[in-house]
Amino acid sequence: MTDTIVIIVFSVFILLVGISFSKTGRNLKSFFAGGESVPWFIGGLSLFMSFFSAGTFVAWGAIAYQHGWVAVTIQWTMCIGALITGLYLAPKWKATGNLTAAEFIKARLGSKVQKIYIYIFTIVSVFIKGSVLYSVSKLVSASLDYPLVPVTIILGILMISYTAVGGLWAVMVTDILQFVVLTAAVLIILPLVFNEVGGVSNFLAKAPDEFFNLTNGEYTWGFIFAFAIYHIFYIGGNWTFVQRYTSVDTPKHASKVAYLFAGLYILSPVLWMLPPMTYQLINPGLAGVDAENAYIMVCKQVLPAGLLGLMLTGMYFSTSASANTALNVVSAVFTNDIYKGSINPGANDKKLMFVARASSWFFGVFMILIALGVPYIGGIVEFTLSVGAITGGPLLLPPIWSLFSKRLSGKATINITLISLSINMLFKMIIPFINGYKLSRANEMLLGVLLPLVMLVIFELLVRKKRSTSIDYENYCKYKSEKKAAAVQIDEQEQLAIEKQNVFGLKMISFSLAFISVLLLILSFITSKGGNLAMAIAILIMLSAIIPWKASKRKSYS
Question: Where exactly are the transmembrane stretches of this chain (predicted)?
Fold first, then answer.
């Protein structure tokens, strides 16, 4: 009962935070991009939490339980992807001056290419976030003994309503809160779980052979190499993350967003994966889909009432942050690039805001339906890695390539995307069904990322002698010059509104951190174990709430 109360209290608080931002979204730029003046450290934390979800605990937790340290190695590839993104890709996206990746694709490669990409991206994003919703629903259902289907529907509706009301700033505030809550929960669970297995030395001595190898099982160096390349494409080109780079004020700050993400992904996977690894000693009998429950089972074993609710809340809202961000971007693309771009170019801000919120609900309901179907597809690990292998390279690499290439045309982009997608699906879905031949996990991922890369290189070599630039690139240069000439300075009233929104966001972060601190402090008095550690973390969170409050005051006076 205590855990349920904690979840309800925190959920209501988060929803109220989202409602508090409902009056700050004056137009598309403020609703979807925070007025393009979001502080880079907030953007970086938001990117980190948007990337991370309950799927991290379910999918990677299952791998950590079964194969050990390789689950950490897999996640370190995300750090590599973020470093490359910070060096080369994030500043390029910001320098385009576009609100969304889809807007850039339209300007650089043409409206036909943009529409095809929108349809594919929307379908893929909703499928992926549906699987993420399944992950957290499974965690809550298994831990609190509630039926899976109603839990999925209720949690999904809460996610959608939050995004539809508050926009990007509401999503980012949620991201910050979940970063704090999950960090607190993990720091509490680690000493408890090591105590359960007789200490760190006992864990190291009794762990299975090869448990601390960098690679293990089907997760070979070939897979790790391919996954690292995939994450350069994914972190550098996924439309959800591109929005984090375009919502800050300068290319330099866009790079800092990616660098902060990279830094957080060095230590975080170690902290996250140790609990399911230790559970291998406590209960070594889990296999297959049952291994997906390893994380929540170790939490139930070592966490007392109240703190388990806090952990579940962090897992749920980290998933909510991930799904919310995807919904925000899909809705932004539909509203800005389909409705405004093709259906109703003359729509006013009030109409666009209505469409933005309505489309969030539409895509969110579809996401819930996907989540309900994940158990019938083969489980979260198979689903996540397969979707990434099939779609990551074909969908994300060509637009990234067009940021640098003067020769790439819209026609070539679509051909490369569709051919590589078709070949990936052929080897994943058709050939195994016909003759039973199935690529290994490493070869599946290598095919997914290297095929479009090789095709792009071949295209560049073939057209090098024919022309120095494509017609699409020349049209893009004209578009940029015209856009620059037609650029209108933000009027004083709009600038004040943007500053007011950002100051309000910082104050809400400060207030929310204080709320979390008080909640954790109360739990430290009623919990049966881990109370002193919970109290210390609560005090630390309370002190950290001073930072955004002071930042809001500086912005108010500037």
Answer: 6-25, 37-63, 69-90, 116-136, 148-169, 176-194, 219-236, 257-274, 294-317, 358-377, 383-404, 416-434, 446-463, 508-527, 533-551
Query: What token pair was written down for 389?
Result: 């292998």
Least confident of 136-140, 444-448, 490-494: 490-494
| Dihedral angle, C-alpha 254, 260, 266, 267, nearest 10 ° | -160
Q: Angle CA(459)–CA(460)–CA(465) in degrees, nearest 5? A: 110
Contacts of 430 (CB under 8 A, 6+ apart): none
Which neighbouring-strand residues pair with 216?
219
Q: Which residues contact 206 (CB under 8 A, 6 or more apart)?
A: 197, 281
- Of 400, 330, 320, 386, the C-alpha closest to 121 is 330
Whether the pLDDT of residue 405 is over 70: the answer is: yes
pLDDT value at 487 more than 90: no
Q: Contact, 135 vs 53, CB < 8 A?
A: yes
Query: Which range scores top for mean pLDDT: 123-132, 295-304, 391-400?
Result: 391-400
DSSP structural state of residue 219: B
Q: From the CB of residue 366, how many other CB atoms can be counted at a distance below 10 Å?
A: 17
- What would the two tokens of residue 322 be? 């991930």
Mean pLDDT of 197-209: 90
Amino acid of residue 429: M
Pairwise CA distance, residues 82 & 62, whole Å: 24
- Output DSSP code: residue 216: B
Question: In this structure, what DSSP letter does residue 59 have?
Answer: I
Pull the structure tokens for residue 282.
Answer: 């406590």
- Residue 557: band (very low, low, confident or very high) from pLDDT cuts 50, 70, 90: low
Quote the pLDDT of residue 148. Answer: 82
Q: How far apart are CA 44 and CA 39, in angstroms?
A: 9
3-state secondary structure 225-258: HHHHHHHHHHHHHCHHHHHHHHCCCCHHHHHHHH
Q: What is the mean pLDDT of the chain?
A: 81
Q: How far is C-alpha 103 from the chain's CA centre?
A: 20
DSSP per-residue letters across 386-435? HHHHHHHHHHHHHHHHHTT-SS--HHHHHHHHHHHHHHHHIIIIIHHHHH
The whole-number average pLDDT for the span 512-529 is 84
Residue 236: which of 484, 449, 29, 478 has the closest Cα?
449
Under a CB-based contact definition with an 8 Å cutoff, are residues 339 and 353 in contact?
no
What is each CA distance from 490 to 29, 61, 487, 495, 521, in whole angstroms? 12, 47, 9, 6, 45
Statement: residue 385 has pLDDT above 60? yes
Q: Which two tokens stand for residue 554?
A: 């500086």
Contact 60, 272 (CB under 8 A): yes
pLDDT in the model for residue 556? 59
Only one residue has tokens 């576009």, namely: 98
Instruction: For residues 140 and 8, give the distance between their C-alpha atoms in angstroms, rounded to a whole number.
Output: 12
Alpha carbon 145 to its chain centroid, in Å, reads: 28
Question: Which amino acid would we find at residue 517?
Answer: S
Radius of gyration over every alpha carbon of the chain, rounded to an integer in angstroms: 23
CA 351-356-357 angle, 5° bins:
105
